[in-house]
Write a structure and sequence with these properties.
binds S-adenosylmethionine; VC0802-like; Rossmann fold; 2 domains; seven-stranded mixed β-sheet; alpha/beta; eight-stranded mixed β-sheet
């Protein structure tokens, strides 16, 4: 059976492993950046359609050591790339190099491209063109200390791009990170979620999709595997139908999102509508200073502003103090998880975290902290 690799934001590999097992996929290994699993190609379609945490699903095809361009060229030619696309389709090489003798990424990508297109020339007398954005075949080349890992992409656009987000606020969370954080928070999918600073609504929309069992890939129009020669339309249709059959329409509880910015709330509503979950989410324009519990019990998740720009931090101190005051006085006996990339601001909360998890929000190292307001 083919082996695939699901990549995920740093800090989510353990949660992704559990998710892939729940999807019935056979996990064979784990790295900091993701999880290996063995499955049929239909299983790969399933992971692309249903994984909420993966960034993309890759199909590793070659591993080797190379120090010289000729070695690299010859090693790439060991694998038959002509089986994936026709010479009339397009190709993209994505190279990422660290601590290696050949360190020029562009040169390296060109050498790999030459080795691949020469296979097509030999077989057909024609070759695929290189296309930067929407290539039919994307080849990922990762090199660390002269050790090459070559994989073909099966996802196309990154999987966090679910297709429901029409509009984002400044600094929105990636959808797969938001879904991963909800897993790390051990949210039970059966109790209300409350977000005091909902922005474009990512936490709540992802939570609602989980609770309603809406597959995250159902809104997307295309995936990389659809461009490959072995694409099995019947298998894909089967996976889509199965996912649709498992959706729920209603829930016995609701989701609640607040934000001080009226435009953010308008965008969040629009995004929720486009994701098909607006009937279970209540959005309201309100400052964190005055929020009262909208229900008796639930879990709070918040991604407050970090103050990435100079000068922001002073203004934000007051916001964090308001947040702390609201939690202590209005939300006694609630649990709250806060994602923040700014240690100083978090210290201003003057609350003691009962759990601390390190995750990356893009390139920012963040802490995901649990506070029990007991
Ligand atoms: C980092 S963004 C949240 C992004 C959100 N997680 C998403 O995925 O789109 C922080 C949000 O906090 C909101 N905010 C800032 N100060 C606030 C306050 N005093 N009360 C409520 N919301 C506030 C901002 O309007 C912004 O939408």
């Amino acid at each position: 059976m083919p082996e695939f690799f699901a990549s995920a934001p740093k800090g989510l590999a353990d949660a992704l492993e559990i998710e892939l097992k729940e999807l019935g996929l056979q996990v064979t290994g784990k790295a900091a950046s993701g999880v290996f699993f063995e499955s049929s190609w239909e299983g790969c379609y399933r992971a692309n359609l249903r994984s909420r945490l993966a960034s993309r699903i890759l199909k590793p095809v070659l591993e080797f050591t190379a120090y010289q361009p000729d070695e690299l060229y010859n090693q790439i030619r060991r694998h038959d790339f002509t089986k994936y696309i026709s010479p009339d389709q397009t190709l993209l090489i994505d190279a990422n190099v660290k601590e290696s003798k050949m360190h020029d990424q562009r040169f390296l990508a060109m050498k790999v491209k030459d080795a691949i297109v020469d296979q097509f020339r030999d077989k057909y007398g024609r070759r695929p063109d290189v296309e930067n954005r929407f290539a039919d075949l994307r080849v990922y080349v990762k090199v660390v200390k002269n050790q090459f890992h070559v994989a073909i992409d099966t996802s196309g656009a990154s999987l966090f791009q679910r297709g429901y987000r029409k509009d984002a606020v400044e600094a929105p969370l990636k959808e797969n990170l938001a879904a991963g954080l909800l897993r790390l928070a051990d949210w039970d999918r059966q109790s209300p979620l409350v977000d005091f600073m909902t922005g474009s609504g990512t936490f709540l929309i992802e939570g609602a999709m989980m609770a309603l069992n809406i597959a995250p890939g159902l809104h997307r129009k295309s995936f990389g595997f659809m461009k490959l020669a072995n694409f099995d339309q019947a298998a894909w249709d089967r996976q889509v139908q199965e996912a649709i059959d498992e959706e729920r329409e209603e829930l016995p509880f609701q989701f609640y999102g607040f934000d001080i910015d009226r435009r953010a709330i308008a965008k969040a509503k629009e995004n929720a509508r486009s994701a098909g979950v607006d009937h279970v989410i209540n959005f309201k324009t309100e400052s964190v200073a005055t929020i009262q519990p909208p229900v008796e019990k639930g879990l709070i998740v918040i991604n407050p502003p970090y103050g990435a720009r100079i000068g922001d931090e002073d203004n934000l101190r007051d916001v964090y103090r308001d947040l702390s005051h609201t939690l202590k006085h209005n939300f006694k006996n609630w649990d709250c998880w806060i994602l923040s990339g700014n240690k100083d601001l978090i210290a201003d909360l003057k609350l003691k975290a009962s759990r601390r998890i390190f995750v990356y929000n893009g390139s920012i190292e963040c802490r995901f902290l649990k506070y029990s307001m007991h």
